[in-house]
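TICKET: design request
STATUS: open
ATTACHED STRUCTURE:
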C-alpha cells in the first residue's frame, strides 16, 4: 500500500445516511469510525453502527453539528486522527478545515485555501476564467455601489440574475425580467445574503432559460494527479434543490461532453485540488454551450451515481488521498458502465406545498433490488431540526431506459408508514414524459405540473383489496384443520358466513367483506360485488383471485391512532388506504376527534418564526397567520376559516409541538 497510514480512527462530523456511508468506507479500509451526535440523534442508526460515539450537544445544529469546538473536543477525547465532514453542515467551511489542521488532525477533503477560493462565487468564476472554463456574461466586480450595479445591470440586459457571492441553494438569488425592478432585486438579494451567509456581496449574471444542470466529478491527490470520473445531470429541481439525478448526463453531444470534463480537470488542477470535488455547469441545449456555475469542494449527495457507473468507491478514495496515497489509476483506466439514477426520499408532503413531515417511522420496508443509502429505520424519530432527506435510492441499468424501469419498480415496492415520504411524487417525476424524453430543465416543474401535483387516489379495486387485506389480518389463518373447517356435521353444513364492515376516511358507506376464508365477497359502497377465491396474506403479500383473475400485491397492515393503514402496491405505485372498523368508528366519535375547526394547529413540531396577525384582526380563509420553521424550511400556516382573531397562543421564537394550538378564530358567521 502506497503512503504511510497517518490515522487509524476517523471522526465523522455529520449525521444520517452520509454518516453511515462514511462508516462503511472506514470499515472497508480497517479504520475505526467515531460518530458525533446531538441529543435528538441518540438512538439513530448511524450512532448504533459506529465503533465509538460522542454526544456533542442539543438538537439545534448551531449547538451541535455546527459547533466547531465541540467537534474538535470530541476528536481529542475519542482519539481520532482525522475528521470527515460529509456534506452540508461544516463540509465547505474553510475556517473549520483550518481549525482541524491546526489541531494536528487530518481534514478529509481539500485544503482550506481551495475551499475558501471556491466558496466565493466571484473568486471561483475568476479562477474558472483563468483556467479557460466558459462563464456566463455578467458583473463580478469588487465595487458594490448601487450606481455601478444598476449601470452594469442595464448593460447586461434582462433577463438576468442577482446572486449572492457566498450563497448557495437559491438563497440570495433574484431573477430580474423588468429593468425597472433591478434596484429592488439587488437590495433584496443583498439583505438575504447578509442574513443567510453574513456577506452581502452580490454579482450579476445573464439568465439562461431552459438550461440544464450538469456536473463533472473530479478526484485529485496530494501529488498533483487530477482526473474526472464522468458527469451527472441534476436538472430536476425544486427551488434550486435537487430531486432526481442521473449519470451520465443524457443527450449531450460527445464533443461537448469531453469539453466539460476536460475543463473541470483544468480548473481542479489550476487550484491544486485534492480529494473529491464537483464542477457544476449550466448547459444550454439551444446554444449547445456550457457555462461554469460553481465548484462544490466536498462529497456530493449524488456521489453514488458515479460509483455505480465507474465501480470506484469515492469515499474510500477520499480516505486514501487524505493519508497521502497516490491515485491508483489513470484517466484512461476509468471506464463507464451503463446508466444510474438516484431518487432522493424526503419526509415531506408534496401535495400540500411540500409540507415537512415529522413523527415516528412505524413502517420502513424498502426494496431489496437496488442500492439504498438510508439514515433511518423502523422506529426512527423524524424531527424538525434537520434537513428532510431520509434516504437515497440508486438504480443502475445497462442503459437509461432500464435504469428508469428499475427505479420505478423499486419505488413501487417501497412501503413506509408513520411519516409521510415523497415516494409517489418522485415516481410521478421519473415517469413523466418530459423526463423520459430528456425535455426537462432546472425550472420545468411548473410546466410538468401546471396545476400542481395531486397525489394519486386509490381506485375501487385497490380499496377493495385493502379492505380484504385488513379483513385477513384481523382474522388470521387458523392453526388446525378443526379451526379451518369451521362448524360442521356429517349430514349438512352448519354455522353461517361471517361479515365485517370497513370505512375509508370521510366515507359514510362501508366496504363489506362477507363469506368464508376460501370464498369471500367484497361489496363496495356503490354495491358493486367482487368475488374472491383463495385469498391469502402471508409474508407481506396479498394473493388470490378476484372475479376469476389472479392478483398479487405487496401489502403491509399497521395500526395508527384510531384507524388502520393498509399499504398496498397498485398500478400508480405504493398506496396507503386508511380504514376503520366499526369499533374504530365508535372510538372516533367518543373522542370528538372531528372538532376544533376554528383553531389553527401546528402540523408538525417547529419554531415560530413570525406571527402575521394581532388580536381582533379580520382574516380570510387561507390567509397566512403564522410562519413556522421546520426542517430548515419556512412554512406559512393558513387560516382554516374566515373570521376574527380571538386568541393567539404563541410568540415568535417559541418551540412548539405538533398539533399544538396556535391561533383561535371566531368564524365570520358568528360575528
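STATUS: resolved
RESOLUTION: sequence designed for all positions
ATTACHED SEQUENCE:
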Amino acid at each position: 500500500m502506497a503512503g504511510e497510514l497517518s490515522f487509524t480512527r476517523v471522526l465523522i462530523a455529520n449525521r444520517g445516511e452520509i454518516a453511515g456511508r462514511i462508516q462503511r468506507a472506514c470499515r472497508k479500509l480497517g479504520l475505526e469510525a467515531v460518530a458525533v451526535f446531538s441529543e435528538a440523534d441518540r438512538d439513530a442508526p448511524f450512532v448504533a453502527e459506529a465503533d465509538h460515539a460522542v454526544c456533542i450537544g442539543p438538537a439545534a445544529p448551531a449547538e451541535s453539528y455546527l459547533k466547531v469546538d465541540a467537534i474538535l473536543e470530541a476528536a481529542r477525547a475519542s482519539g481520532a486522527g482525522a475528521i470527515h465532514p460529509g456534506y452540508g453542515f461544516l463540509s465547505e467551511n474553510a475556517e473549520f478545515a483550518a481549525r482541524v489542521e491546526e489541531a494536528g488532525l487530518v481534514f478529509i477533503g481539500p485544503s482550506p485555501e481551495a475551499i475558501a477560493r471556491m466558496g466565493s462565487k466571484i473568486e471561483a468564476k475568476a479562477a474558472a476564467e483563468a483556467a479557460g472554463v466558459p462563464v456566463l456574461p455578467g458583473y463580478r466586480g469588487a465595487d458594490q455601489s448601487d450606481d455601478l450595479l444598476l449601470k452594469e445591470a442595464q448593460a447586461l440586459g434582462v433577463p438576468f440574475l442577482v446572486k449572492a457571492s457566498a450563497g448557495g441553494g437559491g438563497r440570495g438569488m433574484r431573477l430580474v425580467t423588468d429593468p425597472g425592478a433591478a434596484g429592488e432585486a439587488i437590495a433584496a438579494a443583498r439583505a438575504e445574503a447578509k442574513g443567510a451567509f453574513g456577506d452581502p456581496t452580490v454579482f450579476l449574471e445573464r439568465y439562461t432559460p431552459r438550461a440544464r444542470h450538469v456536473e463533472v466529478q473530479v478526484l485529485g491527490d496530494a501529488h498533483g494527479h487530477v482526473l474526472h470520473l464522468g458527469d451527472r445531470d441534476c436538472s430536476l429541481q425544486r427551488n434550486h434543490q435537487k430531486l432526481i439525478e442521473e449519470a451520465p448526463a443524457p443527450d449531450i453531444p460527445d464533443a461537448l461532453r469531453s469539453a466539460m470534463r476536460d475543463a473541470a480537470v483544468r480548473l481542479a488542477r489550476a487550484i491544486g485540488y485534492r480529494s473529491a470535488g464537483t464542477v457544476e455547469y449550466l448547459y444550454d441545449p439551444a446554444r449547445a454551450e456550457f457555462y461554469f456555475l460553481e465548484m462544490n469542494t466536498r462529497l456530493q449527495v449524488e456521489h453514488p451515481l458515479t460509483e455505480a457507473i465507474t465501480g470506484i468507491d469515492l469515499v474510500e478514495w477520499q480516505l486514501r488521498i487524505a493519508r497521502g496515497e497516490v491515485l491508483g489509476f489513470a484517466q484512461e483506466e476509468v471506464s463507464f458502465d451503463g446508466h444510474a439514477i438516484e431518487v432522493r426520499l424526503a419526509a415531506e408532503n408534496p401535495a400540500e406545498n411540500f409540507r415537512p413531515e415529522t413523527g415516528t417511522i412505524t413502517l420502513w420496508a424498502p426494496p431489496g433490488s437496488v442500492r439504498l443509502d438510508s439514515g433511518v429505520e423502523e422506529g426512527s424519530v423524524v424531527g424538525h431540526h434537520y434537513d428532510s432527506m431520509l434516504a437515497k435510492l440508486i438504480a443502475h441499468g445497462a442503459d437509461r431506459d432500464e435504469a428508469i424501469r428499475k427505479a420505478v419498480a423499486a419505488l413501487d415496492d417501497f412501503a413506509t408508514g408513520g411519516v409521510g415520504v415523497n415516494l409517489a411524487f418522485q415516481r410521478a417525476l421519473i415517469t413523466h414524459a418530459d423526463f423520459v424524453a430528456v425535455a426537462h430543465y432546472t425550472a420545468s416543474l411548473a410546466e410538468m405540473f401546471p396545476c400542481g401535483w395531486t397525489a394519486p387516489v386509490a381506485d375501487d379495486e385497490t380499496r377493495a383489496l385493502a379492505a380484504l387485506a385488513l379483513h385477513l389480518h384481523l382474522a388470521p389463518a387458523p392453526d388446525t384443520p378443526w379451526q379451518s373447517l369451521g362448524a360442521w356435521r356429517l349430514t349438512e353444513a352448519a354455522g353461517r358466513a361471517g361479515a365485517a364492515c370497513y370505512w375509508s376516511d370521510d366515507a359514510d358507506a362501508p366496504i363489506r367483506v362477507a363469506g368464508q376464508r376460501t370464498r369471500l365477497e367484497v361489496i363496495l359502497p356503490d354495491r358493486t360485488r367482487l368475488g374472491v377465491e383463495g385469498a391469502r396474506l402471508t409474508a407481506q403479500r396479498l394473493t388470490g383471485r378476484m372475479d376469476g383473475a389472479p392478483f398479487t400485491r405487496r401489502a403491509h397492515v399497521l395500526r395508527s391512532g384510531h384507524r388502520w393503514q393498509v399499504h398496498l402496491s397498485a398500478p400508480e405505485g405504493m398506496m396507503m388506504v386508511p380504514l376503520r372498523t366499526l369499533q374504530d368508528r365508535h372510538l372516533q366519535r367518543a373522542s370528538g376527534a372531528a372538532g376544533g375547526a376554528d383553531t389553527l394547529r401546528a402540523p408538525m413540531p417547529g419554531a415560530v418564526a413570525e406571527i402575521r396577525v394581532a388580536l381582533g384582526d379580520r382574516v380570510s380563509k387561507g390567509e397566512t397567520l403564522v410562519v413556522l420553521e421546520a426542517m430548515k424550511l419556512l412554512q406559512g400556516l393558513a387560516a382554516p376559516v374566515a373570521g376574527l382573531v380571538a386568541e393567539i397562543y404563541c410568540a415568535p421564537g417559541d418551540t412548539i409541538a405538533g398539533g399544538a394550538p396556535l391561533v383561535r378564530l371566531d368564524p365570520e358567521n358568528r360575528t
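CLOSING REMARK: The CA atoms of residues 158 and 177 lie 5 Å apart. Residues 482-497 have pLDDT under 50 and may be disordered.
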